[in-house]
Amino acid sequence: MGYSFKPAMCSVVKTVVQALNAQRLWQRIEDLSCFTEPARPWTRRAFTPLHGQSRVWLQEQMQAAGMEVRQDEAGNLIGSLRGRDPDAPPVVTGSHSDTVVDGGRFDGIVGVLAGIELAHALQDAGVQPLRTFEVIDFLSEEPSDYGISCVGSRALAGVLEADMLASTNDTGETLAQGIARIGGQHHKLDKVRRLPGSVAAFLELHIEQGPVLEARAIPVGVVSHLVGIRRVQITVQGRPDHAGTTPMDLRCDALVAAARLIDACYQQAKALNQPDVYVVATVGRVDVQPNVPNAVPGRVEMVLELRSDQESVLASFPELLLQAQEEKLRELGVSLSTRELSRAPVTHCDPAIMQLIRDSARQCGYDSLTLPSGAGHDAVYMARIAPMGMVFVPCLNGRSHCPEEWLDIDQLMAGTQVLAASMMHLLMQ
Question: Which residues does the UniProt record annotate as the domain Peptidase M20 dimerisation (predicted)?
C-alpha cells in the first residue's frame, strides 16, 4: 500500500481535521480520569472492577461516535466505523486504558480517546472513509498482576503463549482465568489473531514519557523505533533464621544477596551505555520472605526489567550479570533460579508511515522530530501484523507513570490533528 498526498483527498482530510473538537476530547479525558482509586490517583488496574466500569463508559463513548462496539475473546474493546469497501483491510489506532499503580492520567488513554474523537469528527463531517476505521482499547498494556504486559496486543499478534496464560497473580488466579472473568475466552484466542496483511496500517498516539520534545519546544515526535524489553524473574534462596540469635558469619541472607545483585545490575547497565547504545535495567519489584523485622530473609523474588535497542544486550545481560556475581553469591550461601517472564524485540516503525506522519505534521503547521521510544507499547505487537507508526506529544518535564504526568490541551490537539490527518490519508486510499 502506498501513501501519497492527493489534492482532492487533502480537502477531505482538512474537513475532518477541522471537525475535531478539542473541548469534547479534553472532557473525555477528564471523565475517564475519574475512574481511579480515590486514595491512589491515578490507579486503574486491568482486570479490576474499576477498569471494567471504565470500559462500560468507553463503550458508550465509542457508540456516541457512531461506532459498532464489541469485546473480543482476548478482552480487547474494539470500536469499528464501517468503510465503503468492506473487503479492504481496516486502518487501526488505539492504546490502553489501564494504568500502573499511582500512574498518570494521560498515558494510554490519549491514544484511545483521540481515536474516538477522530470517529466522532468523521460522523460530524458526514464523511465515510473507503476503509473501515477501528479504535482498540487493548487489554492490559501495563504489566499486569500476572506479570505479563500487552496482553491484548500479544493475542492479536498470536503470541500470547500457554505459559503466559498459566502465569498467576498473588491470589493464585491464572491469566487465563482472569481473561475469562472479564468476559474473554482464552481457549478461543485463534479467533482473535490477525494475520499479516489483515490490517492496512496501525498508528498510535502517545505522550513521549521523556523530556526531549519539551526541551526542544517541538510539538510532534515521529517515532523511529521502540526498544526491546526483557523481563526475568530471579529467585534468591537463602535460609530464614532468628535475627537475634544467628551470628553474622553463619547467615544465608537472601536479601543481602539480592541487594548485591541489584547494585551490580545498576552498574552493569551504566557501563554498557554508549552514544549509540541504549541500555536501562531496573529491579522494580521485590518480594521478601518472611519479611519481618526479627527474621533473616530466607527468600527473595524480584523481577529484572531490561530495555535496550541492541538485541545482543537483550540476549545476554541477565546471564552475564549472574555469571559475574556467582562466586560472591556462593560465599553468602544462597542459590539462584531464573524464569523468563516476557521478551519483546527491538521494533522499527515503518519508514513510509514515518514519512506520512512528518508530511501530516507539516500540513497541519507543526514542526516534528524523529526520535526513538524507550517505553513499550502495544504498537510493538501490531507491527507484526501491519505497517506501524507512532506519534508522540510532549509531557511536562518528561514525567510519566506518576501523578505529576501532564500535557496541555494544545499539545494534545497537535498530536490528535497529526494522527487524524495521517489516518485519513490511509483511510481514503
Answer: 228-317
With 80 as the cut, is the pLDDT of residue 6 above it?
no
3-state secondary structure of 112: helix
Answer with the one of 344, 373, 392 that is the final residue of a domain. Answer: 344
In angstroms, rounded to a whole number, what is the distance separating the alpha carbons of residues 26 and 413?
A: 9
C-alpha 297/C-alpha 195 separation (Å) is 48
Helix (H) or strand (E) holding 353: helix 351-363
Amino acid at 82: R
* DSSP structure class, residue 277: B
**In terms of residues, how long is the chain?**
429
Paired residues of 287 in beta bridges: 301
- List Cα–Cα distances, 46 to 58, 88, 139, 175, 182, in angstroms: 14, 32, 7, 11, 10
pLDDT tens digits for range 329-379: 999 999 999 999 888 889 999 999 999 999 999 999 999 999 999 999 999
Residue 250: how many CB atoms within 10 A of its CB? 11
Three-state DSSP state, 148: coil
**What SS3 class is residue 67?**
coil
* Residue 14 to residue 5: CA distance in whole angstroms: 12
Q: Are residues 44 and 11 in the same domain?
A: yes
C-alpha cell at 254: 537472601
pLDDT above 90 covers a percentage of the chain that reads 95
Nearest by Cα to 137 from 148, 150, 147, 119: 150
d(CA 187, CA 74): 9
State whether 250 and 334 are in the same domain. yes
Question: In terms of domains, do 385 and 307 share one?
Answer: no
65 located within any domain: yes
Structural element, H or E, at residue 17: helix 7-19
Q: Is the same domain home to 75 and 203?
A: yes
